[in-house]
Amino acid sequence: MKIHKEGYSTLLVVLVILLILCTVLWLILPNTISMAITGIAVLLLILLTRFFRVPSRQTSANQNAVFSPADGTIVAIEEVDENEYLKTRCIQVSVFMSIWDIHINWFPVSGIVKYFKHHHGRYLVAWHPKSSLLNERTTIAIERYDGSEILLRQIAGAMARRIVCYAEVGKPAEQFSELGFIKFGSRVDVFLPLNANIKVAIGQKVVGNVTILATV
Asked: Among 108, 131, 187, 189, which is most exposed with the fewest C-beta within 10 angstroms?
């Protein structure tokens, strides 16, 4: 299993802490209790390692398609006013990532990164309606080669405390390449033109780089 680069430091710190904790407990507690705690520590490390796994997926480029930028569940499909960059009415499709989902984010379309901004903010639960505007977040706008623009927003959740984004203004965005990583529970909003043909439904499980959210 391949581990994402964003997980190396976290896994190392957790491993060192667990090793120290378990060593001390084996010295001061009965063997049966120490064995049980060690088992829990190993399980925790396995779950954390699984969180940072990198999936192997077969992809096929489709320039008319907007692929899901993340694994998770569709929690919102609605018309909204996007006032930060696009300044127009859009269709917002939101993907919520639970603690069990892979938390890598990918570019859903190819084009040029036209806008990027990181916003400091709160840590409301990621499915909260106000999280898109109040939580810590990044906003990325991509101009496709046909001239249309797609906007994405990485949003930190109640447990997420670090958003990583690799997008750079003026640089190419390649469909299926990595956009970034959000550590622990979080959400990604995709803002699409009103003429987008939505291909998903509320409550549907989606797979990053595999599920088509819409065609434009």
From this structure: 189
Contacts (Cβ under 8 Å, ≥6 apart) of 87: none
Q: Where are the alpha helices (DSSP H) in 29-128?
A: 31-51
Segment 84-107 shows an average pLDDT of 92
Q: Which of 47, 149, 54 is nearest to 108 (CA)?
A: 149
For residues 47 and 153, state if they share a domain.
Answer: no
Spell out the residues 6+ positions from residue 198 whose beta carbon is closer than 8 angstroms to its own: 77, 91, 93, 192, 213, 214
Domains: count for the chain: 2
d(CA 108, CA 117): 18
Angle at 199 between CA 196 and CA 205, to 5 degrees: 135
User: Whole-angstrom Cα distance, residue 135 to residue 161?
Assistant: 11
Rounded to whole angstroms, the Cα distance separating 172 from 136 reads 25
Which residues fall within 8 angstroms of residue 10, CB to CB, at 6 or more apart? 48, 52, 183
CATH of the domain at 71: 2.70.70
Q: Angle 150-165-93 (CA atoms, 0-180°, nearest 5)?
A: 35
| Tokens standing for residue 136 | 């810590």
| Domain co-membership, 109 together with 177 | yes
Q: Which residues are known to be catalytic?
A: 186
Instruction: State residue 172 phi and psi, 5-degree precision.
Output: -65, 150
Could you list the residue range(s) of the whole structural domain that residue 28 is in?
5-51
